[in-house]
Write a structure and sequence with these properties.
The chain folds into 2 domains: about 100 residues, Nucleic acid-binding proteins (OB fold (Dihydrolipoamide Acetyltransferase, E2P)); about 120 residues, Bira Bifunctional Protein, Domain 2 (BirA Bifunctional Protein, domain 2, 2-Layer Sandwich). It has 8 helices and 11 strands. The chain is elongated. It starts with 5 loop residues before the first helix and ends with a helix.
């Protein structure tokens, strides 16, 4: 099927004006005015919704579409019309609309703001909200910026172990990994656990840092970085403590403290600039609602 993403419609609106396109996405809102109606459609390709205008005299199954619920999956074919005088820069005047997947009246995401505590109860639908859409789109851009920054400067990306026997200079409390029966582990004569019978033949944990491994690689490649999941078992329920997060750890040989500081400053500036340039809609949303 010849489909175009909503992001591409917005990005190339001048060329697409007057042309017939097919878009697919999930209905954020559906408004029925009896003889015409509006659909806010989002396909995940960008933060913006695309307005679909449907006319009862044009769309054969108008009543079926108007009766759909928020969250329904739709396939829309129509004409791209520029609307510079309106709130949105363009819209699609639908010629035909097909229902790819129906949604129930009990669909829990409606056109209102939902608290994050409520969203915890519907984790499978959270990515469809403006908040999570913006957060993960910015996170994706920031992660890409991290790799771009270091790769453009000749750094080697090193994958350090996630399961390890090292506590990396005591960086934090560790989550233990074991295949032993925790209710009845094998024991030594003194009563302690016999870790030699475990999968690795010793204690193993989730990593708290890839620093030690990165230091080894820096002594071979000169400039390396790790960027991956890190786990800390501190039982502290605050906004400044996370049990799991992604950490950036560069290591550079033949460098002093000033070199480290300059690298860190340049990286932060690069990532911020990169995100601001590529995620303006998401940042405006944060400034307005978060």
């Amino acid at each position: 099927m010849d489909r175009i993403t909503i992001a591409s419609v917005f990005a190339d609106s001048e060329r697409l004006a007057g042309q017939t396109v097919t878009v697919m996405g999930w209905a954020r809102t559906i408004r029925d005015m009896k003889t015409f109606g509006f659909i806010e459609l989002n396909d995940g390709s960008c933060f913006k919704n695309l307005q679909i205008v449907m006319n009862a005299n044009v769309v054969d199954n108008y009543k079926e579409i108007a009766g759909q619920n928020v969250g329904a999956s739709l396939i829309v074919t129509g004409t791209v019309v520029l609307t510079p005088e309106a709130k949105q820069p363009l819209e699609i005047q639908a010629q035909c609309i097909a229902v790819e997947g129906m949604s129930s009246p009990e669909y829990p995401l409606q056109k209102k703001r939902h608290g994050v505590e409520y969203l915890r109860t519907i984790q499978h639908l959270r990515p469809r909200t403006n908040l999570f859409s913006a957060v993960f789109r910015v996170r994706s851009a920031a992660a890409h910026a991290v790799h771009t920054f270091f790769q453009d400067r000749g750094f080697v990306y090193v994958h350090t172990p996630i399961i390890t026997a090292s506590d990396c200079e005591g960086a934090g409390e560790m989550f233990q990994v074991t295949t032993l029966d925790v209710n009845n582990p094998p024991r030594l004569p003194d009563g302690s656990v016999d870790w030699s019978q475990d999968f690795f033949g010793k204690r193993a944990n989730l990593t708290v840092s890839g620093q030690l491994n990165a230091e080894n690689f820096a002594m071979a490649f000169g400039s390396v970085y790790t960027f991956g999941p890190t786990f800390r078992a501190e039982n502290s329920n605050t906004q400044r403590h996370a049990a799991e997060f992604w950490m950036i750890e560069p290591e550079i040989a033949f460098a002093d403290l000033a070199d480290d500081m300059n690298l860190a400053e340049d990286m932060i500036k690069f990532i911020i600039r990169y995100v601001m340039e590529r995620c303006p809609d998401e940042m405006n949303f944060f400034n307005s609602f978060v």
